[in-house]
Write a structure and sequence with these properties.
The protein has 252 residues and is of the alpha/beta class. It has 9 helices and 8 strands.
Length: 252
């Protein structure tokens, strides 16, 4: 069972996050950032690339993953979308939360999933302090504003540190995140959407779903901004019978 973060822990975490932001400011002062896509100086993601990003088509793809009723993404991890996700995740471009969350919301309107709560993939405390923010939680905050569906970040917790999935093979990914998450009893009966930035093999989202199922969650779906270019991912229209097996007539 998860316990509430104590007041002292919350206080020291705010100090850590403030120190990270101060360090980022000093770094930008000495070494000005450049756009992750085109290289334009003084922008982590420049206005011209942001305009282009807003016109990248939504191409909903799916991956069958154990413990998830469905896992989908809004496009392949390449080109402008890849640059945006990487800038958002690694370069501190928090402003990209709004357009990237907009893609997720558009995908949800296509899929029409019955969702009670939106849950971000949690970061371990040390990684959160190092990065200064949880990119999945920022996406959820924007999705709440656009859909009215409540976010429940405290329902899921990462209980041990893991290596970066991007650096590992598929088998290593599975082992890396195995039993790395725990859910609270508040998940019982909820229809949950787990939100992440990138999905490759689905290992992280599968482990999140397993933790939620142990606490009695109902339907569990996963969604990511982008997905790997593996042939295991298939476009929505290629398997219409499967698609309709988890589609309901509910507007989001």
């Amino acid at each position: 069972m998860l316990t509430d973060v104590t007041a002292s822990e919350s206080y020291f975490r705010r100090i850590e996050l403030g120190a990270v932001r101060a360090a980022e400011w000093l770094q930008d002062l000495v070494f000005p950032p450049s756009c992750s896509h085109c290289g334009r100086v003084d922008f982590r993601f420049c206005p011209a690339c942001l305009y282009e990003l807003e016109h990248v088509p939504i191409a909903v793809s799916q991956l069958r993953v154990e413990s998830l009723d469905a896992l989908c993404a809004t496009g392949g991890h390449r080109g402008l979308l890849q640059s945006a996700v990487q800038a958002f995740k690694y370069d501190g471009a928090r402003e990209l939360a709004m357009p990237l969350a907009g893609r997720l919301v558009k995908a949800l309107r296509i899929l029409k999933l019955p969702i009670d709560a939106i849950v971000p993939v949690p970061l371990f405390a040390d990684r959160l302090a190092e990065r200064g923010y949880n990119q999945s939680e920022l996406l959820c905050q924007q999705m709440v504003l656009k859909t009215g569906i409540p976010a429940r970040p405290n329902v899921l917790k990462r209980i041990r540190e893991t290596s970066q999935q991007a650096l590992l093979s598929e088998e290593e990914r599975r082992k890396n995140v195995r039993d790395a998450f725990a859910a609270s009893a508040d998940a019982n009966g909820l229809s949950v959407l787990i939100v992440d930035d990138v999905a490759t093999s689905g290992s992280t989202l599968r482990e999140c779903a397993k933790a939620l199922r142990k606490q009695g969650a109902g339907h569990i779906y996963g969604i990511a901004v982008s997905h790997s270019l593996s042939s295991d991912w298939f476009p929505q229209e290629e398997d219409d019978e499967y698609q309709h097996s988890w589609r309901w007539d509910q507007n989001i």
